[in-house]
Amino acid sequence: MSPPGTEHPMPGNTLPRRTAGSTPTVLGLRQNLAQFMLLVAVNALVGGTLGQERTVLPLLASRTFHLDLYTGALTYILAFGLSKAAMNYFAGTLSDRYGRKPVLIAGWLAAVPVPLMLIFGPSWGWIVAANVLLGVSQGLTWSTAVIMKMDLVGPKQRGLAMGFNEAAGYLGVAVTALATGYLATAYGLRPAPFLLGAAYIALGLGLTVLAVRETHHHARAEAAQHAKGRGTAHAGLTTGQVFTLTSFKDRSLSAASQAGLVNNLNDGLAWGLFPVLFAGAGLDLGQIGILAAAYPAAWGAAQLVTGAASDRWGRKWFIAAGMLVQAGALAIIASAHGFGPWLAAAVVLGLGTAMVYPTLLAAIGDVAHPTWRARSVGVYRLWRDGGFAVGALLSGVLADLYGIPTAIAAVGVLTAASGVVVAVRMRGNDHTAG
Hints:
Layout: H1 33-51, H2 56-63, H3 70-73, H4 75-98, H5 100-111, H6 114-120, H7 124-153, H8 158-187, H9 192-210, H10 216-228, H11 239-249, H12 251-280, H13 285-313, H14 316-335, H15 339-367, H16 373-402, H17 404-425
Helix pairs in contact: 1-7, 1-8, 1-9, 2-12, 4-5, 4-7, 4-16, 5-7, 5-9, 6-7, 6-9, 7-8, 7-10, 7-16, 8-9, 8-13, 8-15, 11-12, 11-16, 12-13, 12-15, 12-16, 12-17, 13-15, 14-15, 14-17, 15-16, 16-17
């Protein structure tokens, strides 16, 4: 019996959907290259909006607001993770109901107050509140950018599309983390680093309003092709059914959801504790900025290769191996000391994450039917970005009780265990391009 939603479309990327006065809807990267690359640029700005915090905010917690306990200092990541996870869930449902572009615009509007709150916030509560808004914005913008690229390219190039999407986003994170490290060194922790984020938000909102076009009709065209092909089984699921299928019932979808959660659990650890670990070892802000950028830079660039490779060779083993590579890198960071070993381990951590990140999204797109794919992506991203909240709590408590190296090592063990779950539970033949 075929797993839910794995009905393969008929060959070819041209899926006509004719209405009076309209031209056929065509799927494929080449056929939609201009809009696709515009959405890549938009997602780079989304990543940059997040990257404004990666180097500076952990140091702002300790140096400006004098938060001594790691658990308290990481509350901004907890707030970010919870709000982003929730918005990921709603982004899919809202984009199915109202269209993709309005949701993308709403996400940018939610980000507008964030730089001002980070610059002028007089207490740590303001920083936490800013991260609630940032999470809302990231959930709506990043999820919708993912969904729109899946809409445009069709089933044959999902891994490649997700590689481009995630590469753009995390290279945006990396470049901005590096830039804000140097801005903080030259001009202080506030306001200069966050002015860069304000510029990103203005540019992203302007591009979205003026140039981005709706893509929902591409998903409807692909769904129509399913109906012409092997039937419409599993096409009419409710949102509750999509949630249960993605979270628990379907082996591949649920394996991807737990791996996404653990992946962002260790990313939350890296975001919140790595700069504090490096500063405690005597590294200056410039070196901390390089280390904070190296991990997402390797992650971002390598996804251009790993996403496309998973189209050819399948998703399962890329994901399982990538989780194990991340676990090894975390073990090195926990046990090493000094800029050189930490830089090498950060690059390895980024490479392992690159094997996992676009491949998980492509795996969701493979299994989910076009009529509920946006909602399934939202559910997956709910679990995945819930990992930020879990990571902030777990790593903060462990760091307070046993120190940062122990917290990093414990998260490394969890990451390895997640890779084993993928190897055991995920089906190996769900990708459509093999």
